[in-house]
Amino acid sequence: MIETTIKIVNKAGLHTRPAATIVKIASKYKSQFYISKDGLKIDGKSIIGVMTLAAELGSELFLSFNGPDEHEMANEVLDFFNRGFDEQ
Amino acid sequence: MKGLKKLVENSKNVIFGIAAAPGIEIGDAFLYTKEILNINANHTDEPEVAIEHLHEALQQSKKELSKIFDFAKSKMGETRSAIFEAQLMILDDPVLISNIESRIKKEKRFPEFIVNDEISKYQQLMIMSSESYLKERAMDIEDIKNRIIRNLQKKRWASKIVHDVLVVTDNLTPADALLFTKSNVKGYVTDRGGLTSHAAIIARSLDLPAVVGTHNGTELIKTGDKLIIDGFHGIVFVNPEPAQLEYFEDKIRRLALIDDELKELKDEPAITTDGREIKLLANVDVTGEIDMVVTNGAKGIGLFRTEQVIEELGEFPDEEMQTKIYSSLATRIYPDIVTIRAFDIGGDKVKQLHIKEANPFLGLRGIRFLLENLDLFKTQVRSILKASVNKNVYFMIPMVSTLAEIIKTKELILECSNELKAEGIPFDPDMKFGIMVEVPAAAVMAKEYGRPVDFFSIGTNDLIQFLIAVDRGNDFVSDLYQEFHPAVLKTISHIVKEGKQSGVEVSICGEMAADSLAVPLLVGMGLDSLSVSPSAIPSIKRTIRSISYKSSIRLVDECMAMDSIPQIIAKIEKFFKEHNIQRTRNIL
After folding, report:
1. Cα B105 vs. chain centroid, distance in angstroms?
2. What pLDDT is recorded for position A57?
3. pLDDT of B297-338, one tens digit each?
4. Are the C-beta atoms of residues B307 and B343 closer than 8 Å to each other?
């Protein structure tokens, strides 16, 4: 299990396009992936769930990865967050 | 008529509307509400079947959305069309779908209820957020939710109409109307819409009575009420009294007799008493209508609306599919001709492409749309060329407003012809090519636009709308939509005259041609052919056979000298009396 906190560095926040990309990345892996914010915990493979998160610039998300390929999954997801969703 | 007046005056169960499609039908009402999504929370005994329906609705929604997504990508780019991609992903969302499935199994409720409830939960979270963009996102989700529910309900409705019904509805889209053609619908009553609304056009082409624009029909009628629809006078009787029933049952018997008489004209030519033959053609919406074209004695198809193929299939047909459809049409009607019109997409015709236009009627539609989507247009031109192999196919394009559109289309036809030649596929190298004259600019330029084409087809519905600047579907102003407006007569006469100078064949395919009152005028103006709903052919033929070309020309001259609509109509009515022409609506 990998658990980490990450800050949104993208100006526009977690809007629809990155939400879709996160779900697409997560869906490639077998491991479970959850995102929590403000007491709300959603499945990172559920687009409608990810879209429900209010995550503007500077807000913090708690991520957890659990499963056989959790390392690869976490790497790719975190990388995407750190790249500012490729939109900077 | 006197009897009818008495029946109406003394009754409280009468609803008035516009007589949109002739005929009388007695039957049970089926209230079709769709504007407001009514979620049915009923229980189901067959959750397995319900889950199957859920997946079919998800599939259908995916099909619709993929098209919108592709289109959005090409128009707005990948980034801005992300919302459609996200909607598509929602249809595959593993968490959402498995929750819905397990709740259907456990709670045994209609899937539409569960879908609504599950998705609304997420919307609630979004609306509660302090972020304003999340509130907007809730609206985006609303769209996909409604799409799934609509597709679920369509399944339910289609399977619900098991016996003959008279559909009562707020308004009918072409897609709804097509859904009904596959069911046991015997007539229509709508709150909104005018003479040329889709409900009216489809009803006429299927030979079903329709009363439209009743304003409050859906409030006064319940599913299961017994109804009489009088499509001649625009009257609906709710739960009729014995006297009313008796009166209309008698009418139906007499109507059947008249129909038989008209059918006897089937093999007679549409020829005036002084020997001018008018080509009487049929407008075809749904392929099933061809049988009616043949039995009613048309000399071919003057208008095949290909966009209806998209409606029927729910997607753009590929080249192979189109070739099959057009070829079988051409083969079945041979040796008569079929006029195939390119996809008339836009305006209110096809709603699956959700581009936002402030004024779609004046927007990207008809030939404008096709020239913007050349791949799609090319597929259609190739298919039509392939179907032309027996030399009985005419091809025309809608909404032409500039000469460039004509030239570009001709270039495309040439390009496709060369390709087919190279591929060794047979086609008619002299396939007749024409344009719809329905934009006032094209009407004014008839002489010039006539030179590069073989024929004109005057689309009176749009032409009148544009000329008088009135929306035919808007019942606040639809009164202003007048076929006998002097400006309309002058314009049609101008198109025919100028077109003839350029050597084109001139036909008319709007609703106006099906109005028997207009027939002597159209004949007198010199139109070569009239294309009308199959059901209108016998009575139009009878009218043509009772008038002379010479007197019709005189009538045109007289009417063109008048400046008021009532005057013109009175003049034509007098002409009918003098010539002792029977009109079906007057017999009743």
Report:
1. 41
2. 83
3. 788 999 998 987 876 666 788 899 899 989 988 988 889 999
4. yes
CB–CB of B361/B304 below 8 Å?
Answer: no
Q: Can you tell me which residue has the tokens 């109509």?
A: B569
pLDDT at B353 over 90: no
Q: List pLDDT tens digits, range A32-85.
A: 999 998 888 999 999 999 999 878 888 899 999 999 999 999 999 999 999 988
In terms of Cβ atoms closer than 10 Å to its own Cβ (0-12, 13-18, 19+), residue B414 is: exposed
Residues of B in contact with A16 (CB under 8 A): 82-83, 86, 137, 140
Tell me the ipTM for this assembly.
0.93
Chain A within 8 Å of B88 (Cβ-Cβ)?
Answer: no
**3-state secondary structure (DSSP) of residue B197:** coil
Number of domains in chain A: 1
Tell whether A38 is within 8 A of chain B (Cβ). Answer: no
Q: What is the mean pLDDT of residues A11-26?
A: 90
Residue A1 has pLDDT above 70, yes or no: yes
CA–CA separation, B375 and B222 (whole Å): 48
User: Using an 8 Å Cβ cutoff, are B466 and B401 in contact?
Assistant: no
3-class secondary structure per residue, B64-95: HHHHHHHHHHHHHHHHHCHHHHHHHHHCCCHH
Q: How far apart are CA B494 and CA B467, in angstroms?
A: 14
Q: Which tokens in the block code for residue B102?
A: 């397990």
Instruction: Find residues 433-452 of chain B whose CB sits inside 8 Å of chain A.
Output: none
Tell me the percentage of chain B whose pLDDT exceeds 90: 51
Find the length of chain B.
Answer: 588
Q: What angle do CA B471, B586, B480 make, to 5 degrees?
A: 15
Residues of B in contact with A21 (CB under 8 A): none
CATH number of domain containing A36 = 3.30.1340.10
Cβ of A48 within 8 Å of Cβ of B119? The answer is yes
For residues B449 and B397, what is the distance between their CA atoms, to the nearest angstrom? 13
Q: Percentage helix, strand, coil, to 5, in chain A?
A: 40, 25, 35
What is the pLDDT averaged over residues B552-574? 95
Question: What length does chain A have?
Answer: 88
CB-CB under 8 Å, B89 with A23? yes
Chain mean position to CA B3: 34
pLDDT at B292 over 50: yes
Domain that holds residue A36: 2-86
**Beta pairing, strands A60-66 & A2-7:** antiparallel
pLDDT at B531 over 60: yes
**The dihedral sign for the CA sequence B483, B485, B487, B492:** positive
Residue in B85, B119, B125 closest to A20 by CB: B85
**Residue B85 CA to its chain's centroid (Å):** 31
Band (B559; pLDDT cuts 50, 70, 90): very high
Q: Which of A6, A9, A13, A15 is catalytic?
A: A15
Q: How far is CA B342 from CA A33, B248, B281, B398, B517, in A?
A: 50, 42, 18, 7, 30
Structure tokens at B10: 């003394």
Which residues on B lie below 8 Å from A56 (Cβ)?
A: 131
Provide the annotated active-site residues of B.
198, 509
Confirm whether A15 is a catalytic residue: yes
